[in-house]
Write a structure and sequence with these properties.
Elements lengths: L4 H7 L5 H12 L3 H8 L15 H9 L9 H31 L2 H8 L7 H15 L11 H21 L5 H4 L5 H21 L6 H17 L11 H15 L4 H17 L6 H12 L1 H6 L7 H4 L3 H14 L1 H23 L41
Helix pairs in contact: 2-8, 5-10, 5-11, 5-13, 5-14, 5-18, 7-8, 7-18, 10-11, 10-12, 13-14, 17-18
């Protein structure tokens, strides 16, 4: 489908009807605290729901317990193998490209700054990382898998944020649209799929067409389960590029909230990386992946590492060649990627399982397979528009 300013404007008026109605009823009946307490014991698909669970929550959980009927499971398996092959690179792209790109959209940055948990950036990064790892497990959609309950809770979390901002009159709907509106939800889906693929391409990671398209497909499934209206969501990478470019043209720009969130993100990863020698690498990598214009808007400091980081694609290209030419090298690098991702996630979660609870208030003081053919290398349909200015 083709996207226009008018069609995008219409998407800003709508949230998620099912989740919004569920959350509204929980608040009306004073059952949010009870729901959160009971849901701490529901972390795996197929687990029996607690007897005392509010009826409206039970109905919601039962109606959202299965993925969309149109899911192609062969495609999802390709996506899982793609993730295994590129997990450390995907984690890098999510952390240093997708998240900063969210901050360069002022309405999104303002919304993130308005939610109390974002004062603790490690929590959001941990939630994002754990959510992605859950998605890419073999049992993600089977009994015992952790992904489905996580996505159900995140969907209600989004609805709760809409509920609070509207009730407390802390959001200018006429100016910014519905909080976490359909346009922003689809935009987020594009940033976590298309922008990640763009970033892997920029880092010189060799991706097959099948692998890249499968990864995008997996995030289509995620979007559907998070309440994205599938009538308007892009179905392929070409329409995804059209949506993402128009979305960023419409909204990208500087904001005080974007600068603050980016500073928190940089500080967080400087704490994760041992010592201080490599601290400037964090900002340099963000600048390299999102471009100078966006980096300047976000207040990313310029350092001598901005030049040195440009050698990263060449180094990664060498590692890719080793992986392609040696089964042992492939195994070793895949294992290193797994351990690196595990270390990063463990550092962020501190060993805890993220619960994605519904906030009862918004505090006022917080403003393919590695063995698959690599022929037909994937390249972006067009360069991401918001990287202009380099």
């Amino acid at each position: 489908m083709s996207y226009t300013q008018e069609s995008m404007d219409a998407l800003r008026l709508h949230g998620d009807e099912l989740a919004d109605a569920t959350v509204a009823t929980l608040f009306e009946r004073g059952e949010v605290g009870k729901f959160n307490t009971l849901m701490r014991y529901v972390s795996a698909a197929g687990s029996p729901l607690p007897d005392d669970l509010p009826d409206v929550a039970r109905e919601y959980l039962q109606s959202t317990a299965a993925p969309p009927s149109w899911v192609d499971w062969d495609e999802m398996e390709k996506a899982r193998l793609f993730f295994i092959d590129n997990n450390v690179h995907i984690s890098t792209a999510l952390s240093f490209a997708a998240m900063p790109a969210c901050y360069v959209v002022p309405p999104v940055a303002k919304l993130l700054s308005a939610t109390h948990s974002l004062e603790y950036p490690s929590k959001r990064m941990a939630e994002t990382g754990q959510f992605t790892v859950y998605l890419m497990q073999p049992d993600a959609f089977e009994a015992g898998g952790r992904f489905v309950p996580a996505v159900q809770k995140v969907r209600l979390l989004h609805a709760a944020i809409r509920h609070h901002l509207a009730r407390e009159n802390r959001w200018d709907t006429a100016k910014w649209g519905t909080p976490i509106c359909q346009e922003d939800m689809i935009g987020g889906q594009m940033l976590f799929s298309m922008l990640v693929l763009d970033s892997l391409h920029r880092l010189n990671i060799h991706m097959s067409v099948d692998g890249a398209e499968a990864y995008f497909y997996a995030w289509r499934v995620v979007g559907a389960m998070l309440g994205v209206d599938q009538e308007h969501a892009p179905k392929d990478v070409e329409s995804a590029r059209e949506f993402l470019d128009l979305y960023m043209i419409r909204h990208m720009g500087p904001s005080a909230e974007g600068v603050k969130l980016t500073r928190q993100l940089i500080d967080l990863y400087e704490e994760v990386v041992p010592g201080t020698l490599f601290d400037p690498v964090v900002g340099a990598l963000i600048r390299y992946l999102v471009g100078d214009t966006c980096a300047d808007w976000l207040g990313v400091p310029r350092t001598a590492w901005d030049t040195a980081i440009k050698a990263a694609p060449a180094l990664l290209g060498v590692l890719e060649s080793i992986e392609d030419g040696s089964p042992l090298g492939e195994w070793a690098l895949d294992r290193l990627g797994h351990l690196t991702t595990w270390f990063e996630l463990s550092s962020l979660t501190r060993g805890r399982v993220m619960q994605y609870a519904i906030p009862e208030e918004l505090k006022s003081d917080y403003g393919v397979s590695s063995s698959a053919s690599r022929a037909g290398r994937w390249t972006p349909p067009e360069p991401a528009v918001f990287r202009s200015g380099n």
